[in-house]
Design a protein that fits this description.
164 residues, alpha/beta
């Protein structure tokens, strides 16, 4: 009886340490999808397939006039010292002029881990079926899917997803 109890206790302890596999939303692959982001110079196109592994990735679909996007971006910039090991890719379907104003407003060009550009092919709408913004697709350092975050969120919530 003691042996059975001890065996069940050990199995229970081991199973508590293992994380259950993440459920992928319908249509979302485990690996970070490859798509092109038109950079602010309007000539260079960056392919997400070129993002190296080793740091978490946040694809942040935003609207320049969205107050929730602005609030989150402001918080990211304010707390960048806590997020310096996260790669942020801010992507919008807005006009380049509006994206440029957003970039200038938050001085995003001074952060090496932040890339901003235009989703020329409306990738987020088609692949992620993004209902609007803010919309974030979070990937771990292996470029594997972690979670989708829709709507207003803070840095603490994002950090919790990155740690999981």
């Amino acid at each position: 009886m003691r042996v059975l109890f001890l065996a069940l206790l050990i199995i229970g302890m081991i199973s508590c340490k293992e994380k259950p596999p993440r459920t992928l939303p319908k249509g979302i692959a485990r690996e970070l999808p490859a798509f092109k982001i038109q950079m602010m110079d309007t000539t260079v196109k960056f392919n997400t397939a070129d993002i190296p592994k080793g740091k978490p990735v946040v694809l942040f679909f935003f609207g320049p006039d969205c107050p929730y996007c602005q609030a989150f971006t402001k918080e990211i910039v304010t707390r960048m010292n806590e997020l310096k090991d996260v790669r942020f890719y801010l992507v919008s379907v807005a006009d380049f002029k509006e994206i440029h104003m957003y970039d200038t407003l938050f001085k995003l060009d001074k952060y090496k881990n932040v890339t901003i550009g235009k989703d020329m092919n409306a990738f987020f709408f088609t692949y992620y079926k993004a209902p609007g913004y803010p919309y974030m697709a979070v990937y771990d350092k292996k470029k594997e899917f972690r979670e989708i975050i829709v709507g207003s969120v803070g840095v603490d919530s994002l950090k919790k997803v990155l740690r999981s």
